Amino acid sequence: MTRKNPKVEEADESGIEVSGHPKTWAAGVPGVYHSMQPALKHMGVGRTGKTLLALNQKDGFDCMSCAWPDPGHRKTFEFCENGAKAVTWEATPVVIGSGFWAEHPVSELRERSEYWLGMQGRLTEPVYKPAGEDHYRPVSWEQAFTIAADRLKGLASPDQATFYTSGRTSNEAAFLYQLFVRAYGTNNLPDCSNMCHESSGWAMGQTIGIGKATISYDDFAKADLIIIMGQNPGTNHPRMLTALEEAKEAGASIVAVNPLPEAGLMRYKNPQTVKGIIGRGTNLADQFMQVRIGGDMALLQAVSKRVLDAEAAAPGTVLDRAFLEEHCEGLEDLKAHLAGLDEAAVLEATGLRVEEIDELADRYLRADKVIITWAMGITQHKKGVATIKEIINLLLLRGNIGKPGAGASPIRGHSNVQGDRTMGIWEQMPPAFLDSLGKEFSFDPPREHGVDAVETVRQMRDGGIRVFVGLGGNFVGAISDTHAAFAAMENTELSVQISTKLNRSHTVTGAEALILPTLGRTEIDLQETGPQFVSVEDTVCAVHASHGTVDPVAPGLLSEVAIVSRLARHVLADSVHADWAGFEKDYDLVREHISHVVAGCEDYNRKIRQDGGFVMPNGPRDSRTFNTPTGKAMLTVNELEHVERPAGTLILQSMRSHDQFNTTIYGHNDRYRGIRKGRDVVFVSPEDLAELGLADGQHVDVHGVYADNVERVLRNFRLVSYPTARGCAAAYYPEANVLVPLDSVAEGSQTPVSKAVIVRLERVMAFVEEPTAAG
């Protein structure tokens, strides 16, 4: 039974409540409560049971809230709090009725929060906003496809269109999408990876020949040491806490490197165990290194230098000489470079004590099997690529790649961002992939590299891109330099969004705009040949099927595969040898083509139906083979450069609240950091507040400090005294995106530098009304 247009209470930011103390443990009974309460409230008992009991199960659907892998032996409740919230968000029976669009002009929707927009319910019919009008209006599917096709076919060049992809898109939809785009004639395929883990792909591709994790799920329990850098698993991928608990029980030590103390790095109360319910749970981090923002590269170099010094003191006893000689290059250059490392510069960059760095180095030297795992606290820096190369350096020195319990582990946040890239969603796919694609479908794919996410904004701004098509996601909400992104999108002729629910990108549009509603991953996908399933690839290269389990929220919804196929038919007709109508009817036909085009996916239809799916080949992990120009892993020399902080400023990072997934806001509380009823806060250490002449509870304007002199500011944010690293601050994403200049990007990867924003805080003086003469 569906409901329409719920009444939504917006947060009154003046009523923010701050406990003043971050939590020291994650999950437990509160995690269960906060998982189930919204699910039962918004979906009811029946729909809650059908969805949550099928979440991450072998015959169920893959969770859309992160790319964390599934264990071989799964529990009945193989989901976390944020997974339950993500399912509730998507599978809610609340829908947007046709009358909504007449009641709410686009200009009004633009003033609403992301939370309010998402809470309006599921999109159920195509809508179109004509040029010069302020309202969407319902149209038929045929009208919608005709409008989009006419505008695309009317462009002077295919490169005047760009085709964005969200990481929750399935392998099947992603493969068809990139085929359609390349058959149309462009490689303009930006995706969400451009904004998050592109630095990982660049660094790992150049050093070990693959941009993916070199471990499996089981390796965590086999490791002697796990170093967690720049991530917050308690909020962003909570099921990782179970793997860390298993590792601790097997004898591993864990080191957390992060500017903020995070509950999920300290102690875990597993709600599926007795000690997690009535006991203390499991202490996770044996060492917490509160590094200054941007100091990770210096820390890694310092540890590698200590490893090399230990080898020099006892030759032949520290480095894995056999591995280095057979599989690696660049050791002598690295030794020469690190010999001149300035210890004082390291301490300045990291904010750490010598003893802390020595302790980490000792842990690394004692460990035979080491995993280093990281997320966007590492990637979203100017030196993000170089920092990840230093992670690889440290691992290679003692042979910690290509053996059980050891390896490099970037943790992807979007559920299938890795699979999208495997399927060809990248503006720079290698010639071998394009050759195979062209041969399979009898056409010559374009070879010139397309635009990434940042370049998409630049070209929309400058008039080079006239049409934007988004397969999922919330592009203008997610990208840096919010005002520049808004203006760029408004400069296009047409924006098309394929979506399940409303978000900011539906309110900031081209002259014309289309919204095409799609099925969610939770829903049964019934096509002409019967129920269909899709597939996804997780963060450790495991590919598995995903089956929807509940009825769609409304009749007439199309799947992503169907939408892409129909759009391609309208735009391309028969210009390539692709059975677009057949693809919509039977997804096995799509997978058959994938098996011919995508390396590692041979015999896809059989392998995806195996129990648990299959694992993609991975040279470094499987056989210590490296697809680099020399065929060897590369130790690299990287010049140290830490983030400079002018006097009177702080280095700010953006981060997610516990009550959100990417730009999707589930509520206004951040339970683990002690924030309730609001998001307009900036976290600053008590020492920095005192130094700046500020105090907890005061309100400030947060100004970005950059040489371009463009005003970028967050207005009237509440200061929260918080145990951040000295000289550092934090605010929530996506609100803080407004502070990040479009051209502030990581070297090489062009990832927005969202974790090192130089800011100045200016106190907002409270307005006091002057007394009247009578008063």
Could you explain the architecture of this structure?
With 775 residues, the chain is an alpha/beta fold. It has 4 domains: 89 residues, no CATH class; 305 residues, 3-Layer(aba) Sandwich (Rossmann fold); 213 residues, Dimethylsulfoxide Reductase, domain 2 (3-Layer(aba) Sandwich), CATH 3.40.228; 114 residues, Barwin-like endoglucanases (Beta Barrel), CATH 2.40.40. Helices cover 36% and strands 16% of the residues. The protein has 31 helices and 33 strands. The strands form 10 sheets. It has a 6-stranded mixed sheet with strand order 6-5-18-17-16-7, sandwiched between helices. Strands 25-32-29-31-30-33 form a 6-stranded mixed β-barrel. A 5-stranded parallel sheet has the order 12-9-8-14-15, sandwiched between helices. The radius of gyration is 25 Å and the shape is globular. It starts with a strand and ends in a 12-residue tail after the last strand. The C terminus is likely disordered.
CATH topology of the largest domain: Rossmann fold
Helix content: 25-40%
What form results from the Cα inertia axes? globular
- Give the CATH architecture of the largest domain: 3-Layer(aba) Sandwich
- Total strand segments: 33
Instruction: Give the class-level CATH name of the largest domain.
Output: Alpha Beta
Number of domains: 4
Alpha plus pi helix count:
31
Across the major sheet, the strand order is 6-5-18-17-16-7
Strand content: 15-25%
Main sheet properties: 6 strands, mixed
The overall average pLDDT, rounded, is 92
Report low-confidence residues grouped into runs of 5 or more.
767-775
Give the helix/strand class: alpha/beta
Euclidean distance between termini CA atoms = 58 Å
From the alpha carbons, calculate the radius of gyration and give it in angstroms: 25 Å
